[in-house]
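S.,

Sequence below, as promised.
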Amino acid sequence: MNLITIIIGSALAAFACAAAAQTFPSKPVRILVGFGAGGSTDIVARVLAQNLTAEWKQNVLVENRPGASGMIAAELTVKSPPDGYTLVMTPQTSVAVAPALYGKAAYETMRDFQPITLTGYTPLLMVIHPSFPAKTFKDFIALAKKSKEPITFGSGGVGSSPHMAGELMASQLGIKITHVPYKGENPALADTIGGQIPIMFGNLPVAVPHVNSGKLRGLANTWSTRSPLAPNVPTVAESGFKDYAIATWFGLLGPAKMPPELVARIQRDTAKVFNQPATKEKLTGLGVDLILNSPEQFRDYLQAEITRYTKVIKDAGIKAQ
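The prediction came back faster than expected:
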């Protein structure tokens, strides 16, 4: 094969990729979600699907495939053709946490996925039963450090973002707290409201109504800035612990080896529909702060998140249950 043949072949391949991106989509697109309907990830995916359907004049469908901390949907994605017709909307759980937590996954995140865009994030709230003696986050740290027994905290499950928030806090702030996993956030909230456990980390949209009703007290926002949905709940950083920040983020990914022009098209259209005023307002009202970065920026962020959570899991000796 001579140089001219190689050049012509490369040019034809590039032209074919560009043409495919321009005609995409010519059939329904599915967005997989590795968690049940009604959760934050599912809601973000459905808002995207509804708006892309209007933008593309083609059906975009959300398909829930819950199980194994989102790894079932993730595996289905990486085994799909890299043509843009199968995507996945996922939090960090299935791509940055679960592979390290379970010790074995059917995929390697940085090798088998094509990051498209980090759509946004939702802060977490550290909520406590009203009878809990700590009135501020600093009070909690002081109490945890002098307590003879680790203080327990609940979350919606092992490997979830709220679980990782507690483990990261223990690691960075030098305290001992014990995780109590539940099968979902609502059972954990019920036990926190009932006083069976004193503390819970919960996704902001789920926790805020109980704080507003007075059933729980918001002790801290785990992100670096306050949320407009909970303006009276200070951040951990405001209490003097500036290196601590964690949120549930939502990323859109596809299988590896997607044509660059197609990746760019999907990223561009996702940013376009999410930045529409009505859509942006709806997501903000649900506690979602939009990011919508480039595939390259999302790839770098994803690598950093994998490194961070792998260290947290290893240092805490967390095992899948």
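The mean pLDDT is 91.

Coffee later?
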